[in-house]
Amino acid sequence: MTTTAPPPTSTPAPRTAADTWQRKTARIVADYAMPLLVLFVLVLASVTTDGFADGANLRAILISTAITGIAAVGMTAITLTGNLFSLGIGSTVVLCGIVFLAVAGATGSVLVGVLVAVGASLLLGLAQALIVGAGLNPVITTLAFGAIVYGCVAVGTGGEVVTAGSVPVTRLATASVLGLPLPVIIFIAMTALVSFLTARTVTGRRMRLLGENRATAGTSGISAMKGTVVAFASLSVGAALAGILSAAQLRQMQANDLPNLTLDVIAAVLVGGAAINGGEASAVRTALGALLIVILGNVMLLQGLAPGERLFGVGAVVVVLVVLLHLLRKAGAR
Amino acid sequence: MNRLADVSRTYGLQGAILALVIVAVLVVAPDFVGQPAAFSVLERLVPLGIITAGIAVTMIVGELDLSIASVAALSGATAILLSNSGLGLVPVLLVATAAGAAVGALQGWAVARLGISSLVLTVGTLILFRGATSLVTGGVPITPDDYGVSDQLLMRYGVLSPTSITALLVLVVLGVFLSRTRPGMALYAVGGGRNEAVAAGVPLRPTLVIAFAISGGCGALAGALSSLRSASATPDGFTNMLLLGVAAALVGGISLAGGRGGMVNVLLGVVITSTLAAGLSSVGFKAFVAELFTGVLLLAVIGADAAVRWISRRRYLAEQRRQLSGLSAIDLTAAEPEVSRR
């Protein structure tokens, strides 16, 4: 769907040295734009904004990036395999948070809660992967699953707030490893894992080819079903971890929580420069995309802007960035 | 005779679903009959029906406007501010719709000119317009100074109201535009096979601009009507309308792949999902129960659609095989020159 056709090109111009040089530059810029941009914004913000470079503030930025970031990194695999994105991730995250709290509260064990939540998310992901792998549209399938999951969670909890009682779930959110809060460590680990999976393994290469050109992948004997299942497994793990950590932070959760999460996650993936039609996506860049959005919001907050102005600013940056990344990629591919 | 077969083939699945939904709702809510039921279903045409029409037009052209619900929220807030500045109801609606259409046209132009995926661009503008709504409202719910404006919209003629009449008019006008005019048919050509349409001389850029202008205008009109009717606009209003609209369009039989479906499908989809929601809420079920069943319905519809396509492909292959086995009486390798001569 929505494959915007390239404008009908005339006969390809003869390749000159300058032409190749430009293409190379465009490709390098597209590859390193994200880290450079984050670095640039960091330096600029530290210089211009009082209190930004403060240790506590940087820590707060990392913590608030972690949850969206974990889910977004998980979703990167979906986009990479050409399955666009999941419109149901928000409700899956809430489901996992609630399942985690309920199970941990009932059994008294945080570990059992984590395992059951991840298991539930994986099962849900597998069901969607089987449907999408059979050739049904991923956007519709995840939209429908999202509505069903939201409805089930709301009916199951009766719209009430779920807590874990006296079980110390907050430890997951506040525990400190190597001086960093656990959610941030998990965010970094998840990014490294998905990055390794997509860039360094045979499965990852096959997923990339599936996204790049499904027909070619099919004729080379690559199973669309297998790639889709792996991608949805990555999404499910990301959603489960995000839900568990969010629930641990808030100590409570209800069906209507995190209403903007799905769009924040999609925005992070897109700002990270993933090609919407697949074949090109990087977990590291997605993580940086999530970080960039949070940093911008934080800077605007420190500058004393109202919530509406901050949202408008972030929206403007997202629009400009995705258009620029698109133009750069087009210049690099020509 | 043929026309009847055509209609039943085109709208058969949706008609059957509608009948099923009505029966199911009547079982759960036996009192959901007659004028009040019809009125409460039709009242949901604003905002859902108009928004679904806008989404459907972008789906037909093979794109998707994700920003439509944010445009509705922005337009709703703007409409209330405009009516506070002393403008009458009709001028407010016209200004809001025109502004929405202009914003949409700009998006369509960007999609066509830059060759960027509309999903990518409109995710960004979705956040942007949501922020703009927050700016316009100052982050708090706003209300009109003069409630007379909303009274005009709360009149009732039988099962109809000024808002549902407007929605039906929009659907009729768009239906005629899509099926009877050259630019309307160009939307189907571009959605069905973009490269082929461009090669055949269908202008791509104006067609995309028109599609997104329609969706922007629909979003703005729906938002303005709905906010004026309820006499309030909030910075986070209409957030669920995007998903409900996409679901209604898909249940109605519009294809995400583009080039398929029309305003009759939009009406069917909206009536199916609205009957479900209105019926369930009439017996006290919360909105999330209706959402749960809408999700199930959506899965069932795409499942049925996939099954129908699979069966028709099997039939087609079987037909091909039968024709080939008829030929196999002749030795195919020896007959090759003969076949090619024919």
TrEMBL record, chain A:
CDD domains: TM_PBP1_transp_AraH_like. It is found in: Cell membrane. One of its GO terms (cellular component) is plasma membrane. It is a multi-pass membrane protein. Pfam families: BPD_transp_2. GO terms for molecular function: transmembrane transporter activity. Keywords: Cell inner membrane, Cell membrane, Membrane, Transmembrane, Transmembrane helix, Transport. Signal peptide: none annotated. InterPro entries: ABC_transp_permease. The chain crosses the membrane at residues 29-48, 60-78, 85-104, 110-132, 139-158, 178-199, 229-249, 261-279, 286-305, 311-328. The keyword Metal-binding does not apply. This is Ribose transport system permease protein. It comes from Klenkia taihuensis. The lineage of its organism: Bacteria, Bacillati, Actinomycetota, Actinomycetes, Geodermatophilales.
UniProtKB/TrEMBL annotation, chain B:
This is Ribose transport system permease protein. The keyword Membrane applies. The lineage of its organism: Bacteria, Bacillati, Actinomycetota, Actinomycetes, Geodermatophilales. The keyword Chloroplast does not apply. GO terms for molecular function: transmembrane transporter activity. It is a multi-pass membrane protein. Keywords: Cell membrane, Membrane, Transmembrane, Transmembrane helix. GO terms for cellular component: plasma membrane. It is found in: Cell membrane. The chain crosses the membrane at residues 12-33, 45-69, 89-112, 119-142, 154-178, 208-226, 238-257, 264-286, 292-312. PANTHER family: ABC TRANSPORTER PERMEASE PROTEIN YPHD-RELATED-RELATED, BRANCHED-CHAIN AMINO ACID TRANSPORT SYSTEM, PERMEASE PROTEIN. Pfam families: BPD_transp_2.
